[in-house]
Write a structure and sequence with these properties.
Blueprint: H1 2-26, H2 28-85, H3 88-96, H4 106-128, H5 130-137, H6 144-169, H7 173-179, H8 181-196, H9 204-228, H10 239-270, H11 273-287, H12 291-309, H13 313-340, H14 342-348, H15 357-371, H16 376-382, H17 386-411, H18 413-439
Helix pairs in contact: 2-4, 2-6, 2-7, 2-8, 2-10, 2-11, 2-12, 3-6, 4-6, 5-6, 6-7, 6-9, 8-9, 10-17, 10-18, 11-15, 12-13, 13-15, 15-18, 16-17, 17-18
Length: 448
């Protein structure tokens, strides 16, 4: 009797899963999210391998100390690059997601020039501040030449990601995926290996990174020109008004980046180069679990913008709910795999990196908690609530600062990990609550 009941239950579960899968296949939007999301994830996975090989190469041949300096310089690079883009890469997705705006080609070129000029000014400021940053802030004189090469990279990275935003709006998610971190680390690794063949200079890693970014920027611009079919600077839209609308998106994105790199900054003040390197390897491994969210968001952003603009409430909520479900389960599977193989994965980078096990576990748990909230940031920004998103991120940043400066001096790497997890989980939770209470949007996975 028990066997019969168990078999009946299992049959019912399987039948239910088959029915859900058939419904997904029949629904064009869900099918597109899965197909394009899988393609995006495949490309990002290839890029992830390039990023890990980059990390592996630097850590293995130059040690945790040099990789710590590279990680610190990358934190400066990412923050300066985010400020230089002025939020235009996100607003371009929202604007060009509406088909009739594609005739307005001049706006893209105008805002691209503005971003390049601002990025160049930021790069100059970073270069002339390299002594202050390396010697006075971090007390790491060896960091100074790394900052020089990072500063050179910033304007090219702004070009790359603004072009990526245009292609994302066009639905060219393959190119969007390539032009983000996959392309960055693939080209960086390629140039690092070329330079390594001629010299064993520890700066090879950061030099290769610069050459890779410059090459990627040229490629991104050529692809964008091809899809726009022409180069024109005439525009019916006011580029300054467009820029003003983009600023809150920039501030929110910058705060998010700072949240992701504040732990490295604070560790740079209190910890050795080697400990920074160990922490960042653990962080890079844990970040792998966010790739499913990035893949889903690459498809969701234009769909959310279009369905919200056309007031298609059924499609709007359906794609959000479907994205939340897929994101949670894919993140959970990846995290379980990382935790089960944690020692082997860390040891791959070197015996010293096994010390990052507690950090890796806490960061992975944090990713699972955050995945339950869904695509909070994308939903808020694509529905015109970028100001609200900015305020939520600001609260999370303040919490992050307080926790980092309280826990890191006492608990080192583990304290930095806890501070990061708590603050990121907080902004996801606050955002999900706001969407539910103020807009009646269920962004989170509700297990139904």
């Amino acid at each position: 009797m028990w066997c019969f009941t168990a078999g009946y239950i299992n049959h019912g579960i399987i039948a239910g899963l088959k029915k859900k899968f058939r419904n997904i296949v029949k629904d064009a939007d869900s099918r597109e999210i899965l197909v394009k999301g899988f393609a995006f994830l495949s490309i990002r996975s290839a890029g992830l391998l390039a990023g890990y090989f980059f990390t592996y190469f630097v850590a293995k041949y130059y040690g945790a100390s040099v990789y710590g300096l590279v990680a610190l310089s990358f934190s400066l690079f990412v923050i300066a690059g985010m400020l230089g883009r002025l939020g235009l890469d996100i607003n371009i997705v929202k604007f060009y997601s509406e088909d009739h705006n594609w005739s307005n080609k001049g706006l893209f070129y105008r805002v691209l020039i503005k971003s390049f000029l601002v990025s160049s000014l930021l790069a100059a400021g970073l270069y002339y501040s390299k002594d202050l940053i390396a010697n006075r802030l971090f007390s790491k004189p060896a960091l100074e030449p790394y900052i020089y090469w990072v500063a050179l990279s910033v304007p090219f990275w702004s070009i790359t990601l603004i072009c990526a935003g245009l292609l994302r709006a066009k639905g060219k998610n393959g190119w969007f995926a390539i032009l983000n971190n996959p392309g960055r680390f693939f080209f960086a690794l390629l140039f690092v290996l070329i330079l390594w063949a001629f010299t064993d200079d520890p700066l090879t890693a950061i030099k290769g990174h610069f050459y890779g970014i410059a090459g990627l920027a040229v490629m991104a611009l050529l692809i964008s020109i091809y899809h726009l079919r022409s180069v024109s600077f005439s525009s019916d839209a006011n580029s300054w008004a467009f820029l003003k609308e983009s600023i809150p998106m920039m501030l929110s994105s910058t705060i998010l980046v700072i949240l992701g790199w504040m732990d490295t900054f604070v560790l740079g003040i209190y910890e050795t180069d080697a400990n920074i390197g160990i922490y960042n390897v653990a962080l890079k491994i844990a970040t792998f679990s966010t790739f499913s969210l990035q893949a889903i968001n690459s498809i969701l952003a234009p769909k959310i913008a279009r369905s919200y603009a056309s007031d298609d409430k059924v499609l709007f909520q359906r794609v959000i709910r479907f994205g939340a479900r897929i994101n949670f389960f894919s993140t959970l599977v990846i995290v379980l795999g990382i935790i089960l193989g944690q020692k082997w994965i860390l040891q791959f980078f070197g015996d010293d990196f096994v010390n990052g096990t507690p950090v890796l576990i806490i960061l992975c748990i944090g990713q699972v908690i955050s995945s339950m909230s869904g695509s909070v940031g994308v939903i808020l920004q694509m529905t015109g609530k970028q100001g609200v998103y900015q305020n939520i991120m600001l609260v999370a940043l303040i919490l992050n600062l307080v926790l980092n400066f309280s826990l890191t001096p006492v608990y080192g790497n583990f304290g930095a990990a806890v501070a990061t997890v708590v603050s990121i989980a907080a902004w996801n939770l606050i955002g999900a609550i706001y969407l539910k209470r103020n807009m009646n949007i269920v962004s989170y996975y509700d297990f139904k």
